[in-house]
Amino acid sequence: MRELKFRQAIKARGVLPFQWRYWGYIYPDSPSLFEPPLGNVEWDERPSYQFTGLKDSNSKEVYEGNVVRFRESSFDEWSTRTIRYFGDRNYPAFDVFPEIDADSNGLSYIMACCEIEVIGDIEEHPELLK
């Protein structure tokens, strides 16, 4: 069974606008692997994001909400997309948005055929989507 991991933005009073809190489970019924941060913390209103189970070309974990850039090895031009979970569309899978024309799931195609790099997050860097 795969490890389930999540992250959520939290606000720590007087420290940063927000920072990421990570937590996860080896099995859904097991205790959390990560403890909540200590100190005076307020939960932000931002959503939680799930780990896709994938890593980019630099071995960085890919979470929903990440902004990634990718290119096929024969091309110089990079494309930018957001990682999303499409369960609300009756399609229970992580994919990229805007969608790409591929014979399979767009994220699976990118992971198999392209160089991919996490360049930010929609929470921290919304300008990356422009």
Mind explaining what this structure looks like?
The protein has one domain. It is globular. It is mainly beta. The strands form 2 sheets. A 4-stranded antiparallel β-sheet has the order 2-1-3-4, with no helix packed on it. The protein has a 4-stranded antiparallel β-sheet with strand order 7-6-5-8, covered by helices on one side. Helix content is 6%, strand content 48%. It has 1 helix and 8 strands, in the order E-E-E-E-E-E-E-H-E. It starts with a strand and ends in a 9-residue tail after the last strand.
List keywords for this structure.
130 residues, four-stranded antiparallel β-sheet, 48% strand, 8 strands, 1 helix, mainly beta
Give a nutshell description of this structure.
By secondary structure, this protein is mainly beta. The protein has one helix at residues 106-113, and strands spanning 4-12, 16-25, 41-55, 61-63, 66-72, 79-85, 94-97, 114-121. The strands form two sheets. The protein has a four-stranded antiparallel beta sheet with strand order 2-1-3-4, with no helix packed on it.
